[in-house]
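Fold this: Protein NUCLEAR FUSION DEFECTIVE 4-like
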Amino acid sequence: MSKLVLKGGSRPPWVGLAAAVWVQIAAGSSYNFSLYSHLLKSVLGLNQQQLTVLGVANDIGESVGLLPGLACNRFPPWAVLLVGAVCCFVGYGAIWLAVSRTVPNLPYWLLWLTHCIATNSNAWFGTAVLVTNMRNFPLSRGTVAGILKGYVGLSAAVYTVIYSMVLRKSALDLLLFLAIGIPILCLALMYFVRPCTPASTEDPSEHNHFLFTQAACVLLAVFLVSTTILDATTTPSNAVAYTLVAIMVVLLMSPLAVPIKMTICSVKTKKLGPRVDSTEPLASGENNSSQIEPLLTPSSSATNLGSFYENDESSDVETLLAVGEGAIHKKKRKPKRGEDFKLREAVIKADFWLLWFLYFLGVGPGITVLNNLSQIGISLGVNDTTLLLALFSFCNFVGRLGSGVISEHFVRSRMIPRSLWMMFSLMLMSVAFLLYASAHTVTLYVATGLMGISYGVLYAMMVPLASEIFGLKNFGVIFNFMQLGNPIGAVLFSVLLASTLYDNEAAKQGSITCIGQECFRVTFFVLSGVAGLGSILCIILTVRLRPVYQMLYAGGSFRLPQNSGH
């Protein structure tokens, strides 16, 4: 791995976080499938199962991120973002050529492949900014993950506003925007997403900065929902529409206020410590280096660490002497939970597969609803599903940002594992499917809101949870392996279950479009049981992880464990 040049100072991490907000919006392009899927169906003459398989291609593309995960450990973030921009241009460009009939008779398998390439850009975008910012803010992982994943959740609403007010609901223009606009945006921002020197102690002002960023995020979410409702109930003029879009852009830029404030204000900030995993001394001339306090006082954390690791370090001196004398050969110690794991070391752990399966049992049903949201609405008499998508996006954002804030509070104050909140979200998801099955217009909106919250919590909690159990060193690879639950769940639940039953019901009605509660009813009952099974796995994982979190957060703040030596 080539050594990355770290940017020093207190402002650069916040500049990178502000840039990451825009990249995360770009990384939500797969949510647009429901906005242009009807065009694919009508222009290319696809049936529901063929359309669903293209939706699965979306899920496979954005979730197969092992290559981006490996690349994050070998190349700088700008190189990873560059690959994503190329994938986005090639993929969405090819889809636009097919739908616009510029290239007629594009084979179905090639159309499927272009969807994979297009949305695989999201894996490159998301991995680059998520891994970089988690490493830049290692002491606030839950908060950072909640913010970044929250903006991804809002991306569907952002695209809906652009689609409705700028592109005037032209799906063809939307595809062209995705092919050209997103790559240009990421090329413009890739310099600012870079690894920086994080603090080894908590900066008192950091909490206020995160609060401001979260407040800006909430304000953007409220604005997007209000704008979507306004557009659905009225027909705003061009001047009003462009003004609303301009306000949205300003709100998206609001996280930049933090580094700007840090630049303009002449307040003396506390000197930040060295990079947390660095063994290099501080720069010469810093006479107060001995006054830097450790991350935690030894009293509480040392006691917990000693009991948790069963006094592994009690005989370190004797072992080193024996190794020096040749009496014994020192073997590399296997990492323990909370330390840095390689992927091959993580996959043999029970906690790894418990986390993978509960994530799979949650996002699989969730992505099934998202891929079929338009058809679900139409089957129940809601022909314009724009509002449904905006509702899902807003609630998805609430789940992502809210779970980050709430879990961070309870993990520091009560040392409660984040998997507990995943359990609650899966229970909520199970209830949401039962509401869908009731087949009423009101419960359709309520269920979509609950589904968005549950889906958002699962995504936001898996990120810090995986990094806390298996470390940040190979986080990109481990995180993207977890993401494989998304396309596998989509194949099983969306293609083999939902679309098959839907087409069967449509055939009974003598049409390619199914109308009525029977279209998805059996699917909803099955998925409710699947989500319930996932909540049981969450309980098991939470019990297993409680001692890990008692060790990591024994002093009320995250304690970076000792390096496992690899």
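The chain has two domains: 9-197+211-263, 337-558. Confidence is low (pLDDT under 50) at residues 1-5, 269-317, 319-323.
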